[in-house]
Fold this sequence. Notes:
- β1 (132-134) and β2 form a beta hairpin.
- The protein has helices at residues 16-33, 38-59, 66-73, 81-101, 112-123, 167-179, 185-202, 209-223, 233-239, 241-250, 267-291, 294-310, 318-328, 336-340, 344-356, 378-381, 394-398, 403-408; strands at residues 132-134, 141-143, 155-156, 159-160, 330-331, 360-361, 369-371.
- It is built from 18 helices and 7 strands.
- 41% of the residues are buried.
- The strands form 3 sheets. The chain has a 3-stranded antiparallel sheet, with helices on both faces. It has a two-stranded antiparallel ribbon with strand order 1-2.
- The protein is globular, with a radius of gyration of 23 Å.
- The longest helix has 25 residues, at 267-291.
- By secondary structure, it is mainly alpha-helical.
- The protein folds into 2 domains: 12-292, Fido-like domain (Fic-like fold), CATH 1.10.3290; 294-381, Arc Repressor Mutant, subunit A (Orthogonal Bundle).
- The two termini are 21 Å apart.
- α9 crosses α10 (241-250) and α9 (233-239) crosses α11 (267-291).
Amino acid sequence: MTGAGHMEPMLPDIGVAMSDTIVNLVAQAQALSGSLHPILRSTVGDLVRSMNCYYSNLIEGHHTQLIDIERALNNDYSAVPEKRDLQLEARAHIEVQYLIDHGQKPYPAYSAEGICWIHKVFCERLPASLLEVPLPGGEGMMTMVPGALRQAHVMVGRHAAPEPEALPELLARFTEAYTGPMLGRLETIASVAAGHHRLAWIHPFPDGNGRVARLVSHARLDEIGVGSELWSVSRGLARNVERYKALLQAADEPRRGALDGRGNLTAAGLAAFSQFFLETCLDQVVFMRALLAPAELMRRIQIWTDEEVAARRLPKGSWRLLRETILIGEFPRSAAAELTGYQERQARTVISSLTARGLLVSETPKGPVRLGTPAEVTERWFPGLYQPEPPPSPRLAVARKNDEDDELGF
């Protein structure tokens, strides 16, 4: 039976290149974290959770348009069953990440309980049709139990996933290796990259392993002070999906000889995947830091607002209110007259126009307002956040299970 030793090595060798990447990642992540007003940060967090869901689903072969994600969050679901299922799947992902981002997960990310909890709360939110997964060998279907470890042997591409009986021991070793007191700062950050692969290699669940691995990595990065609700590695992984999956598969391979470490699995493969993962994290933090630079963000929003005012789709005075939310996070509705220089009635009209389009949002009808990010403005306010829509394919239209990920370790 597969034992903990079959998963070694657990950490990559941290050379100069990886060390430099980690140091740069930490510095850039700290700069990004302190760049926005806390209330505006919360608004951007909502946007990033939708983005993370979009890209994580795209990796799985499930394409859900941004407008459909927004509708799902407003309980507006398609009458087409397959499309509705994708909307529910997207909403489930966003809700689970919200719990993670707001410190509401009851267990550490790197624990058997934490990993199973993420799978459980995600799958509990899925429609029944998405819990039906093929039996090993493709003979029939089974209903997946949210949070339950798999009870069957599976082949994942060329990788024979560990026996079900081995899963508790492997998850215990996973926790021990990546949370031990002897890990230094560099090793702790590198362990998130290595752990992403090793969790996929363990393949603890009948289905959903890819999404769970990405959510676990997101949660762990947040725990160690590198991740935040302002960025997501899934965007970078999805935009390099072929390399992502190829390097995951390469790290499944056995040791390639005496010069390839001392463990059962390839040390070179683990190091290559870890470097790729960390570079992808750094790339996404740098991208978001540039995208959210306050001066540039205000410039883009002002240009768009001026165009809308010129086209008479928004009233004059709109920019002054939007600018205030960027600068101070939120303001009371009673301040609109002073900010616009208008009489109170006219100022209320400006507020109403902006809230009607979701450009200003509030927890209550009379409460303070903050910036909103409806789907219609995403590309203008946050250019490049979403990649162009891929061409439709029969597999995406059917919106069933992730065949590619089953082949390559998810």
